[in-house]
Amino acid sequence: MFLFSSTYQDVASLACLPHCTSGQTFFYPAFNASRSEDAVKFAHEFGEVLGMPIMLEAVMCVHASKGLRMASFHGNFFVRSTDLLATPAVPTDPSYCIKIQIEDTLTAPFVVVQTAVLHTTCYGECQIRVVTLALPTTSSLSEVFTSADQVAIVTLLANKAIERSLMHFLLLALLTSLPSQTLVPYIYPTFYSLHNMPPKAGMVGENGVIMPTPLPLTSEHLERHGLFLIEDGQMVFLWISRDAVPQLVMDVFNLPNYELLRGGKPTLPVLDNPFSQRVNAIIQKTHEMRRGVYYPHLYVVKEDGEPPLRLSADSICHRHLCKSLKVAYPATILMDLY
């Protein structure tokens, strides 16, 4: 479901439809087709949705060994019974999370979980796909923690937190359809320091563009004269500090000083200097490295710039980092940023 509106739109209520029909919600607040940044984002996402192979009229059944029970299901689908899910359309990217509860003492050396999906391909062929997973059992708690799948745990906890949130349906529309590879960076964004990145960062290596080493989201890595990139798979923020030297501003934005720079949603110029080309290559790589159809917008955020931009940058940062960015009120907001 693609939503465009220049006025208020009840996305939370409308999102119930794709939730029950195993679809996805794409929301474009204050969309302007004449603005190239908006047009590129929509064209990319709409084209990816139309071009992806999908399964139709699917029914998913999950069984497990004796002593295990399917306790809860999370994702975009309709629950028909205790272990049967109806998914009218199954794209390639959404993930589904199932909580399995232990009801009896497990004495076997391993347990088996089997998922079967009966579906029709987009070419009209009826197929059954079966995935069988065997997991060893143990009585040692340390072995459980050592072999735990951190991504799966984070995905489950995120879905459970969304269900208990006051913004349940809105968050459901935005997060529950994300694959785990995209959900994790949304929860813990990636943070790069660009002004002092290694010389090879942004250059093309054997495996494509070489990315800088991600830094922890802590204030000790912020510098008052720096240029930083923060991305969560949905948005990319290019944060520039107020004490950035004029040469840095010129190399990246083609402006003589920081005061003339305007924050917002720009098209970053590709200039005839190595640093500009490296920064643009890194930003382009962030668009390509995340699984999914979403095309993140790029926002330039000045340290003393527009409060909505700074507040939105704050919403994807950890609290201790936001204090260093001098944002007054941590919050999560949905708005169009200029």
Automatic annotation (TrEMBL):
<dbReference type="InterPro" id="IPR006896">
    <property type="entry name" value="Sec23/24_trunk_dom"/>
</dbReference>
<dbReference type="InterPro" id="IPR050550">
    <property type="entry name" value="SEC23_SEC24_subfamily"/>
</dbReference>
<dbReference type="GO" id="GO:0000149">
    <property type="term" value="F:SNARE binding"/>
</dbReference>
<dbReference type="GO" id="GO:0070971">
    <property type="term" value="C:endoplasmic reticulum exit site"/>
</dbReference>
<dbReference type="Pfam" id="PF04811">
    <property type="entry name" value="Sec23_trunk"/>
</dbReference>
<feature type="domain" description="Sec23/Sec24 beta-sandwich">
    <location>
        <begin position="56"/>
        <end position="138"/>
    </location>
</feature>
<dbReference type="InterPro" id="IPR036180">
    <property type="entry name" value="Gelsolin-like_dom_sf"/>
</dbReference>
<feature type="domain" description="Sec23/Sec24 trunk">
    <location>
        <begin position="1"/>
        <end position="47"/>
    </location>
</feature>
<dbReference type="GO" id="GO:0005789">
    <property type="term" value="C:endoplasmic reticulum membrane"/>
</dbReference>
<dbReference type="GO" id="GO:0008270">
    <property type="term" value="F:zinc ion binding"/>
</dbReference>
<keyword id="KW-0472">Membrane</keyword>
<dbReference type="Pfam" id="PF00626">
    <property type="entry name" value="Gelsolin"/>
</dbReference>
<dbReference type="Pfam" id="PF08033">
    <property type="entry name" value="Sec23_BS"/>
</dbReference>
<dbReference type="GO" id="GO:0006886">
    <property type="term" value="P:intracellular protein transport"/>
</dbReference>
<feature type="domain" description="Gelsolin-like">
    <location>
        <begin position="209"/>
        <end position="282"/>
    </location>
</feature>
<dbReference type="InterPro" id="IPR012990">
    <property type="entry name" value="Beta-sandwich_Sec23_24"/>
</dbReference>
<keyword id="KW-0813">Transport</keyword>
<keyword id="KW-0256">Endoplasmic reticulum</keyword>
<dbReference type="GO" id="GO:0030127">
    <property type="term" value="C:COPII vesicle coat"/>
</dbReference>
<dbReference type="InterPro" id="IPR036465">
    <property type="entry name" value="vWFA_dom_sf"/>
</dbReference>
<dbReference type="InterPro" id="IPR007123">
    <property type="entry name" value="Gelsolin-like_dom"/>
</dbReference>
<protein>
    <recommendedName>
        <fullName>Protein transport protein SEC24</fullName>
    </recommendedName>
</protein>
<keyword id="KW-0931">ER-Golgi transport</keyword>
<dbReference type="InterPro" id="IPR029006">
    <property type="entry name" value="ADF-H/Gelsolin-like_dom_sf"/>
</dbReference>
<dbReference type="GO" id="GO:0090110">
    <property type="term" value="P:COPII-coated vesicle cargo loading"/>
</dbReference>
